[in-house]
Design goal:
This is Mechanosensitive ion channel family protein. The chain is an alpha+beta fold. The chain has helices at residues 9-21, 29-36, 55-58, 70-76, 83-101, 106-126, 131-144, 156-205, 215-245, 248-251, 253-283, 289-318, 323-330, 332-349, 363-392, 397-424, 434-459, 463-498, 509-528, 533-545, 556-584, 592-617, 626-639, 641-656, 696-701, 728-741, 777-795; strands spanning 547-549, 552-554, 664-667, 670-677, 681-686, 691-695, 704-706, 714-722, 752-758, 763-771, 803-808, 834-839. It folds into 5 domains: 9-146 and 154-205, no CATH class; 215-252 and 319-541, no CATH class; 561-706, no CATH class; 714-801, Alpha-Beta Plaits (2-Layer Sandwich), CATH 3.30.70.100; 805-839, no CATH class. The chain contains 27 helices and 12 strands. The strands form 4 sheets. It has a 5-stranded antiparallel sheet with strand order 6-5-4-3-7. Strand 4 and strand 5 form a beta hairpin. Residues 1-78, 424-428 and 822-840 have low confidence and may be disordered.
Amino acid sequence: MAGWRAGHPRRVSGRIAGAVTGPVTGPVTALLLAVLLALPGAGALAQGTVAQGTAEQETVAAADSPQAPAVEKTLTAPLNQDPYYTAWLETAQRAEDAIDANRASNAALEELRAQLVTYRQTFLDSRDHNSSRIGTLKSQLSALGEAPADGVAEPADIAALRDRLTVQLRDLQVPAVVAQEAYSRADGLISELDRIVRERQTRQLLSRGETPLNPAGWTTALRDLTVLLRDISNETVSSWRAARDLNRLRDNAPLILLFTIAGLILLARGRTWAERAGGYLRGLGRRGTGVWRFIVSLGRIGMPLVGLYLITRAVNASEAIGLRGTLFLNELPLWGMIILGFLWLGDRLYSKRDQDAQIPLPASARAAARRNLLYVALLLVLYRTIALIETVQTISEASRAVLVFPVILAASVVLMRLRRIILIEDPDSEAMPAGMRRMAPALRGLSLVVAGAAPLLAAAGYQILAEAIVFPAMLTLAVLCVVLVLQRFVSDVYAWISGVGEAVEVSIVPVLAGFALSVLALPVLALIWGARVADMTELWARFLAGFNVGDTNISPTDFLTFAAIFGIGYAATRAFQGALSSSLLPRTGLDAGGQNAVVSGTGYVGILLSALVAITSAGIDLSSLAIVAGALSVGIGFGLQNIVSNFVSGIILLIERPISEGDWIEVNGQMGYVRDISVRSTRIETFDRTDVIVPNADLVSGMVTNYTRGNTVGRAIVPVGVAYGTDTRRVETILREIANAHPMVLANPAPNVVFRGFGADSLDFEIRAILRDVNWMLSVKSDMNHEIAKRFAEAGIEIPFAQRDIWLRNPEVLRPGDKGPVDTGNGAPGAPRQDHDVDG
């Protein structure tokens, strides 16, 4: 706290408390602040400023006070001759005096705040100016080791070197310490100025003024308007006579004539020319129709707007109107922009052509929606006109209340009509944009609350509060409509460039475009609802400053640096893996499983190195994350142990390679080929062409049968039975010939024929042969069975099958018409007895 001046302990505590708790403005503000003042500086739409004091009271000059702390004097001693630092001290002193006095106007406070922001940014940039050299000096001091204890002698050369390095380090650290102190002081002063401005705006927003229902205010408003019109008329007549007498009209006649003719032509023919240009562009090809329509729509409002501006310039060039008339005339292009802009929104959202309407409504509802958007534009123009009247002529508070109240009432009616026409009629239609369907409930509620509350507040005298909710609500609807239109335009551009046509509706591009446009619209909405530009710049400065994790500051620049370097490393790793798998490894003697292990291991190492290099380049100190890493390890130990176990098992599988890609394995009753070994699991393709995902831990700790581990050689067993009485040696000879004749059977070791024994129905034999490729086992068995059937038929050898004879003790019960009792053989009538005889 060296930057705070001594002798003002109340100021320190008050500033900290104000920055933490914010203002408390009365018992009726809790609900209103929750809705309207969520953003810093809400209520800035209220017109006027709070003038409290003269310019002499606002800028109190102060030299360096003798009450400053000694530590500040010590730190700033090397900078006493620096003009920039001296100017900073004077500015900081003026800011503290203005805060203590609390009499300066908002405009003066904003100007003082802008100066403080400039100083703060300078000090922020200066904090790390000598960081590299400071780090080098600290490394040199660390290399010298710990300083000896008191009374312990140190070699003279080392002591001299240590003293010299210490002095250099101290000299380099002083500017950084001073910059940090000045940065903290400037940041605190900026926060205090913002708090004062917010409190004033809040008080002004919630202040109660004259009610427009008082008839006395009507006559006052009529008198003020009459005076204004008379003054404008008198000024115009005087200016016209002066321009005529001084020959200014004749001197500027060519320019006036040129601007007037060009402006009138653009006003009359601009929209027609834009339509013709659109027809020509659409004639070039059917692709990009939506893009051309958007460009043509801009031309339809752009050309008349240029014409309106030229006419304004022509009238200004004549110098035939007075000062007040000029101020109103200069507003004409802005009024035209508002009206033409809302007409453009209505045409884009609720077009007369069904195929061009972005929000699907019946034709009558679309026409009503376009009319109401035009009414919104006219009301905004009227509101700006009243604000301009306050600028050019001093009017009473009662007059202003009377003038604004009809506009507020009409705005509430228009909001209710828009709510009924646009937001309620079929809001859940599938044809309506998804964003509109999601926003419809909130917009309905906002419109209802604003339209109902604004006239009541204005009638009760809370004119500024009513203005601060009704006109921002209308502008909010306009901003949301612009977002929808621009999202559609981005989708059309993507469809035009990619050639996907209507398939863009299911693409992710419109979703990403809508998200980006929504994020960009947030600052605009904040400004509409009363946030100051200074608040936006302050948030941006905080964002650029980053946040602290331990002792490490992480800023967006650091994040972008990390992302860029890691992305480059990741891409290089993938490219190197592709070169290994396609060019280098196939020329080595490694099998497919070994090649896959090398490629996967290279990927893990490359990604790890990319992350480490990116972290180091971004300046992120991992040592400060020790506590977070400790907590994370505990979480891993309890909640992620299975994932870690599978990860470690995957590493073991890649190193030990008990299984490889392409192996035929059986695990947990599932049999198939290994298709992919990843970090957490292994994918097995069964013979049914289904994928089975097996956790790596099951492959390491469980029992796995690998039929092709190391080679594809395997044994096939073909069983066969012959009838009793058959020559067994002859059967053995035939089976051996069949096995030796198959091309997949190895000659060494030779196939073997085994006489297994005497079965219940047959004499059992087996062919046991070693195949050169066990993957052909089923085909080999099928071929051998076909050959066995053929050779046994030629040799007259019978392959027996089981036979059963059924004996009935009393078959007479099966004769028709005989319903005598049935002897079951066990004394219970009615159940036949069955004896089974097996014939082998």
